[in-house]
Amino acid sequence: MTDTLPAPGRRRPWSHRTRLGVDLAIAIPLLLLATAWLVLDWIYGYGLEVWAAQGAQAQIDAAGLAHIGRVRMVLIAVLMPAVLAAIFRARWTVIAHLLVALLAGVSLAAAQYEWEHSHTPPPGCIRYSANC
């Protein structure tokens, strides 16, 4: 009788943990890239737009809203690979993406708090009054 080879089993992404070298080779550059993007966007994307506005409140408001939108997109863009890394059981990549997501979430909360704080009417102001 001839021995037949067993059919190779399909390897599912979650069946084995991703090798440590591959995991770290993906996690470290993505962590550095996303963190650098957030910092550079805060400095150059938002800071220079506010500086270039020269006190024009409409341009400063537009720069603030654009910055909030960009940080929100980074937060979404960081969480999607974190889910994929969790499926592939890449522990350090998930940790790195969650750290960047935490940084982006804190940055987003700070930007939204600053926006809300600068756009609240003074106490006792009627909402649709001409001086508010």
Helix/strand structural class: mainly alpha
SSE pattern, N- to C-terminal: HHH
Output mean pLDDT: 86
Shape: elongated
Q: Unreliable stretches, pLDDT < 50, 5 or more residues?
A: none
Counted by DSSP, the helix tally is 3
Helical residue percent? Answer: over 70%
Tell me the number of strands. 0
Terminal residue distance: 93 Å
Radius of gyration computed on alpha carbons: 23 Å
Report the sheet-strand fraction. Answer: under 5%
**Largest sheet geometry:** none
Observed structural traits:
mainly alpha
List the helices and strands and how they pair.
Layout: H1 20-53, H2 57-87, H3 91-118
Helix pairs in contact: 1-2, 1-3, 2-3
Q: Gist?
A:
The protein is mainly alpha-helical. The chain is built from three helices and no strands.
